[in-house]
Amino acid sequence: MSAVAAQSAMEFRLTIRRGESLLVTLAIPVGVLIVFSKIEIANQPLDVLVPGVLALAVIATSMVSLGIATGFERRYNVLKRLASTPLSRRGIVMAKMINIVAIEAIQVVVILAVAMALGWSFAWRVVPALAVLVVGSVAFSGLGLLLAGTLRAEATLALTNLLYLLCIGIGGVVYPIEDLSDGLAAVATVMPSGAFVQSLRAVLDPGSVALGWPLAILIAWAVVLPVLAIRLFRFEE
Known about the structure:
This protein is mostly helical. The protein contains 10 helices and no strands. The mean pLDDT is 85.
């Protein structure tokens, strides 16, 4: 466990030192929350924005940051070398997951603080929302590792950023899925991001959307994506 703890600490230090990682995981979600709650052209209520931004932050860490970092570690044989140490492959995965949890805890605290400063209020509902955040993190960690473990590093970089933009555009982050056209709404509903955001909104604002199907779809993704990542992941390009 000492090796896992040391590797987790190293993963955390490397993450916070990468400016582009902090931009994607923290600056952009907070910026989306502030800008889209204030500009007249969007003027989205905080009850819509806060769940979407929380989901976006988790997606940024679990899929984008984890996927890109792991993809380049695989590209330069860092994973192969680590796997040959006493840390083991399981230890590598554990260290990465601990790092993700630490980063996401910081994100949640910062986003909730900014949301409260903007006038958003919450009660006990934030507690079950944390459970949904965990399920979403598992799903998108699986997706990030699936991409990183099967594609070339450059392809992982491009695809994770494209998916991130799609999550902002049609994933229900800024605009509720119900406000999209029928075709886009049908696609967004079954997307991991759409199910994630709708589940969070259903927990934080029970009157906004039913919890059942979105949560079931999210749980399905949280099972399928990690299983695929485990089965298909290759430690070398």
